[in-house]
Design brief:
Layout: E1 16-25, E2 28-34, E3 43-44, E4 47-49, H1 56-68, E5 73-85, E6 88-98, E7 111-118, H2 131-137
Parallel strand pairs: 1-6
Antiparallel strand pairs: 1-2, 1-4, 2-3, 2-7, 5-6
Length: 141
Amino acid sequence: MDETTNDQGAPAATPTLGVGAIVVRDGHLLMVRRAQEPALGLWSIPGGKVERSEYLADALRREVQEETGLEVDVGELAGFFEVIGDGTHYVIMDFLATYTGAEEPRPGDDVDRARWVPLDDIASLDCTPRFVELLTAWGVL
């Protein structure tokens, strides 16, 4: 038995913690298109799983850098949500983040596209479930 299974070998009931970065610059949101499951082919913000003994802000900076090549400063928590599916349970915390560099995003780990998307165009993309609704509720859109 390890931390991912219970004593019967079934998946553990413990949720997986994830983080996401809401980075807005000049009326554009930093977005990525997922190249792997979960959410293969869907647009979202950069982010991913928090590793054992990793601070949330460190995980967020790492994930943004891995997925877009960009460095960010982590700000306030925008909100959180849960995704529960077939044998999975994710708790995802999305943080506001600031990017002040001059580089353009480039796709990295787990994504096949990374770009700045005009805020008005986000609803027309094929986004992860509840993405537009959550960003609207949190005052981003």
